[in-house]
């Protein structure tokens, strides 16, 4: 049957409850007496036994005046089909009839028909057929309609305004001005992401056909004021022919109205807007997209210019062009994040009268798709972090381009395009469409898990993805034949409640809390710090003068000279400020006038610290070096110019690499004790470069770890399919690499950073044949570097690191008690001097029974026994998990005891799937030699491990516990080179004194406004702690700022207290390259 007209209406009657109506003209033939329906409205009032219905019908006649119809000759009859029940006929009567003449349409008749049937329930949907006949039973008109009683007004308002209000609020929060710091930028990106995620979720509700109480039919797609697509909706009814009947789908929208029979819902939109059948609708879509794009482009550029600190006089065509290009890529990412899904859906939805995929529309669709894909590809190749705009918490992504995580954005946008294409191109294949879209939701969840680890499931982004998958899976109940009508109604209510919960809990409440925090933070920036107690300090006068003198300084020759040095790029006023700070602190040594050489010597002692006091007294000129010329050679030895007159070379020296506060080597570094009396820098799952599940095994892990001086690496060995052992993380969906390539890589980098002995911790899951291949491979590649026999068979002590320099030792789990010391291998298996000689050429039967186990000369491994009952006759390496270690030490018992020749290795629990680390400080406290950490994770505990082994080549001698009172005084003067966005924001320095047996002591400066990347504090901090482990006491420092009312770290560093150099020193920030800034302090350490 031809579908001639499809028009949705919403009737709001003063004394009646509205009913949503979908209708079509069901007349088979047209005569000169036929009434052609043009409008059909309904209202319902509750009666005693049912509901009283009132219908308003407006109709006209093709060749006659409709006002000439005799109302007495018209008889209305209803056929009501109640879902789950038999159909029944209900009579009705015409209670009113009027006639009016339209200027454009001519005479029209208006019927008001009353009837009574069915006690309706909340949002119950049923169908009816209204036949208007004459008294002689001649059919005058036929109207088939779907009726849905309107929901209560609160529910209607909720369905309309909840998405609108939530989206408006998230947009306001996303655009809220905030301090331009690294942490606040990440927070702002998260708020922008939330707005984009909400828009995507509204699109998800729209295309999945849910949460609509504004249009007829139960759960019609969300097409209201909150849908940007309705901007293309022309005024008045849209006449559109449906090709679905010819495609095998009965009655188009009436059989596929939203979720009633399973269609995801694009059909209603396209039939309302005429998009698939009117060529001008394609142009409307294209023009509207361009308008939105250029609006975003203009807004982004204006916002960038308003926030830019560049003066207008410095603008050139080149700089403007560069800024416009930068803004273009940002807007492309934003536009595609928001609108790739709907545009790709419209581009693939092709029906035109009797043709499917009409030529003109297909050409337009292909053009749009090409533009979309080209824009996406160009933007992605320009910026691999494009995905940061479509996922929450972008900081979770690793920024290392080699990690492969940049492809997360590619996966997300590809799934957007696939969803749109499936929604638009598979409208007549409901089950296939539903299955593919469900698969897309599952793939997105798996991609998030793969690239952002399992921690995503406790984030809002992860909860949102799980919710989308669960709610969309419920739509299976709407596929024809799966569930009854009552079952579909129940599923629909569950979906509606689910969407309300998601909108409220994931979007609305966080947006409200963010707005409250931003409002409070706006006041806190000028009134209080993170604790709302310490006032923000004003910028010193020299810094205020910098604003007025900056243009002159840029033109001066001296400023250009200073800019050539990476440590003196700050404004000269900072140098002057520092030169004013130091004399004020050294009033006992320095005077305003000329300074004696004795006073200079005392001043030099404070600058150089007490490390070189004797050398300074012998030769005061030692303070002059290649980096600073503090003493003018032409000056008198008895009189030297005031410190305030000394050039900026003093500042240059203070911030130089030679003045770092951390010693390059430990003060006491004796390597002649047995190896079990040392802490050893150890790695866990070295072959992994990310999480423990669904990750890639790479040789890069060994290269990076060994290059940093690690002296114990782990190799997990498994049977390979080709008979050769492989290395991977078992039962965790990780990729594998060949055992031989791992051994070759270790051999190449084993002594790259240190020549002290290297331990190979082998976790072997191979059969005997491949175990033998492993042993042969290591003998062949390591050759003389591999320890295959005891250095001194008569000694009961383990050898020292000095005795084992350049050697590789194996840790292998033994299955039975071995002899006290293994017999050495036969000489023919050790003399592999010729490069081409292979140990496999020897007779296999002449080798020991378990060659691999026999190679564990000093590294026979066992699990830690219960109650720490160690073997007193033989050295072992006892392996214990983090959890079992805590059980063994809960009674504060140590794992170390003199006279026992053993080592202990503690490794992270298997449930640390995100490769996080445990606290190694407690392991060192209990004498654990090998605290194996996930070196691929750069967290606080990893920085603690790096501080422990800084400059030690991977071995640190243990020290006996000794009660010591440590007093640490740190005068925080100035920070330079902080990686923060240009702009003023309050920052403060926080320091923590960490010990394994006491609560950490903390101190912090008052918040001070940051100028560009430099800030002056000039504040004294003091901390004191009594500990039994002074050799395990660490200082952790960090520069923090405020973000959303919370203190967020910008950069940080860690060092052992015993490795600190006293005097005026710089504390490095960030990684080993110190490229995240430096903190100048005056350090004093007293131990009693």
UniProtKB/TrEMBL annotation:
The protein's matches in Pfam families, at most eight in alphabetical order, are given as:
PI-PLC-X (PF00388), PI-PLC-Y (PF00387)
Signal peptide residues are 1-18
Q: What class of enzyme is it?
A: hydrolase
SMART domains found in the cross-reference section: PLCXc, PLCYc
Please state every residue range assigned to the domain named PI-PLC Y-box: 877-958
Keyword Hydrolase among UniProt keywords: yes
Span list, region Disordered: 536-570
Q: What protein does this entry describe?
A: Phosphoinositide phospholipase C
């Amino acid at each position: 049957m031809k579908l001639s007209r499809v028009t949705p209406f919403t009737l709001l009657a003063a004394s009646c409850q509205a009913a949503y109506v979908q209708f079509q003209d069901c007349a088979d033939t047209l005569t000169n007496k036929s009434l052609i329906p043009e409008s059909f409205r309904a209202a319902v009032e509750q009666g005693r036994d049912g509901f009283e219905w009132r219908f308003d019908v407006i109709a006209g006649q093709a060749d006659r005046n409709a006002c000439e119809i005799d109302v007495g000759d018209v008889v209305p009859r209803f056929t009501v089909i109640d879902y789950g029940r038999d159909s029944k006929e209900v009579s009705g009567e015409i209670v009113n009839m009027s006639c009016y003449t339209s200027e454009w349409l001519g005479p029209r008749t208006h019927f008001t028909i009353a009837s009574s049937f069915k006690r309706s329930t909340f949002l119950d949907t049923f169908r009816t057929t209204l036949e208007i006949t004459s008294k002689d039973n001649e059919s005058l008109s036929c109207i088939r309609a779907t009726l849905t009683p309107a929901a209560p007004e609160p529910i209607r308002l909720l369905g309309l305004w909840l998405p609108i209000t939530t989206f408006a609020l998230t947009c306001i929060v996303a655009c809220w001005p905030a301090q331009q710091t690294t942490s606040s930028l990440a927070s702002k990106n998260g708020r922008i992401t939330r707005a984009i995620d909400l828009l995507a979720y509204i699109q998800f509700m729209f295309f999945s056909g849910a949460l609509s109480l504004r249009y007829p039919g139960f759960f019609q797609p969300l097409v209201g004021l909150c849908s940007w697509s309705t901007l293309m909706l022309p005024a008045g009814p849209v006449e559109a022919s449906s090709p679905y009947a010819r495609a095998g789908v009965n009655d188009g929208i009436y059989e596929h109205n939203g979720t009633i029979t399973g269609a995801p819902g694009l059909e209603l939109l396209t039939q309302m807007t005429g998009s698939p059948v009117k060529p001008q609708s394609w142009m409307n879509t294209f023009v509207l997209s361009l308008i939105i794009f250029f609006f975003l482009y203009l807004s982004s550029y204006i916002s960038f210019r308003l926030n830019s600190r560049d003066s207008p006089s410095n603008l050139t065509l080149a700089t403007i062009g560069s800024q416009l290009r930068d803004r273009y890529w940002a807007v492309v990412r934003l536009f595609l994040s928001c609108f790739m899904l709907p545009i790709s859906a419209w581009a693939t939805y092709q029906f035109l009268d009797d043709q499917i995929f009409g030529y003109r529309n297909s050409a337009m669709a292909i053009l749009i798709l090409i533009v979309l894909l080209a824009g996406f590809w160009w933007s992605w190749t320009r910026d691999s972090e494009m995905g940061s705009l479509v996922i929450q918490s972008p900081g979770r992504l690793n920024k290392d381009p080699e990690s492969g995580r940049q492809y997360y954005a590619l996966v997300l946008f590809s799934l957007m395009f696939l969803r749109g294409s499936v929604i638009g191109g598979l409208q007549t294949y409901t089950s296939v469409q539903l299955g593919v879209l469900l698969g897309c939701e599952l793939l997105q969840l798996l991609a998030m898990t793969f690239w952002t680890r399992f921690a995503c499931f406790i984030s809002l982004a992860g909860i949102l993805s799980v919710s989308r998958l669960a709610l969309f899976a419920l739509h299976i109940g709407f596929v024809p034949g799966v569930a009854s009508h009552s079952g579909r109604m129940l599923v629909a209510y569950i979906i509606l409640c689910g969407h309300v919960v998601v909108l409220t809990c994931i979007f609305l409440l966080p947006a409200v809390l963010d707005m409250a925090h931003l409002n409070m933070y706006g006041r806190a920036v000028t009134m209080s710090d993170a604790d709302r107690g310490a006032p923000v300090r004003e910028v010193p006068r020299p810094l205020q003068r910098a604003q007025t003198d900056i243009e002159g300084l840029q033109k001066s020759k001296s400023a250009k000279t200073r800019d050539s040095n990476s440590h003196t790029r700050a404004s000269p006023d900072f140098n002057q400020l520092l030169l004013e700070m130091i004399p004020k602190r050294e009033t006992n040594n320095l005077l305003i006038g000329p300074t004696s050489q004795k006073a200079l010597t005392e001043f030099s002692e404070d600058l150089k610290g007490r490390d070189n006091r004797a050398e300074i007294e012998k030769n005061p000129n030692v303070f002059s070096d290649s980096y600073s010329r503090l003493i003018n050679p032409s000056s008198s030895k008895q009189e030297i110019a005031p410190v305030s007159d000394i050039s900026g070379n003093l500042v240059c020296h203070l911030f130089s690499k030679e003045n770092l506060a951390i010693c390059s080597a430990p003060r006491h570094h004796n390597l002649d004790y047995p190896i079990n009396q040392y802490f050893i820098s150890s790695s866990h799952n070295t072959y992994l470069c990310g999480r423990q599940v669904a990750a890639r095994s790479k040789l890069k892990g060994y290269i990076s770890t060994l290059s940093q001086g690690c002296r114990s690496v782990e190799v997990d060995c498994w049977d390979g399919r080709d008979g050769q052992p492989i290395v991977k993380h078992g039962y965790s969906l990780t990729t594998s690499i060949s055992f031989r390539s791992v051994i070759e890589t270790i051999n190449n980098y084993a002594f790259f950073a240190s020549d002290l002995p290297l331990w190979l911790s082998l976790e072997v899951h191979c059969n005997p044949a491949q175990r033998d291949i492993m042993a042969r491979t290591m003998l062949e590649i390591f050759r003389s570097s591999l320890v295959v026999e005891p250095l001194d068979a008569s000694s009961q002590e383990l050898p020292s690191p000095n005795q084992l320099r350049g050697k590789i030792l194996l840790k292998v789990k033994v299955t039975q008690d071995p002899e006290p010391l293994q017999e050495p291998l036969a000489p023919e298996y050790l003399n592999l001097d010729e490069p081409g000689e292979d140990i496999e050429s020897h007779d296999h039967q002449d080798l020991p029974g378990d060659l691999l186990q026999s190679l564990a000369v000093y590294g026979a491994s066992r699990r830690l026994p219960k109650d720490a009952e160690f073997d007193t006759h033989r050295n072992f390496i006892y392996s214990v998990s983090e959890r079992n270690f805590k059980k063994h030490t809960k009674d504060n018992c140590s794992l170390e005891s003199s006279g026992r020749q053993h080592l202990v290795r503690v490794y992270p629990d298997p449930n640390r799937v995100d490769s996080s680390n445990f606290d190694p400080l407690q392991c060192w406290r209990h004498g654990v030699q090998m605290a194996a950490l996930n070196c691929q994770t750069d967290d606080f505990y990893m920085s603690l491990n790096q501080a422990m082994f800084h400059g030690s080549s991977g071995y640190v001698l243990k020290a006996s516990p000794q009660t010591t009172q440590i007093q640490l005084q740190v005068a925080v003067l100035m920070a330079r080179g902080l990686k923060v966005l240009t702009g003023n924001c309050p920052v403060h320095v926080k320091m923590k004194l960490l010990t394994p047996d006491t609560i950490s002591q903390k101190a912090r400066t008052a918040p001070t406004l940051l100028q560009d990347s430099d800030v002056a504090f000039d504040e004294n901090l003091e901390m004191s702690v009594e500990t039994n482990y002074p050799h395990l006491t660490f200082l952790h420092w960090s520069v923090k700022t405020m973000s959303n009312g919370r203190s967020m770290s910008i950069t940080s560093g860690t060092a052992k207290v015993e490795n600190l150099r006293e005097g005026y020193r710089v504390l490095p920030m960030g990684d080993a390259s110190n490229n995240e800034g430096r903190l100048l302090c005056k350090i004093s350490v007293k131990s009693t």
